[in-house]
# Entry
Amino acid sequence: MWGPVECVDFKHLIRRFAELQAVVVPVMWGS
# Structure
């Protein structure tokens, strides 16, 4: 599932994590 570390695009992962937080955080606060 995970490729070699040198193949990981950290900027892409950070962007994905930020997008996920932007969705999850309001849901947590709203519940």
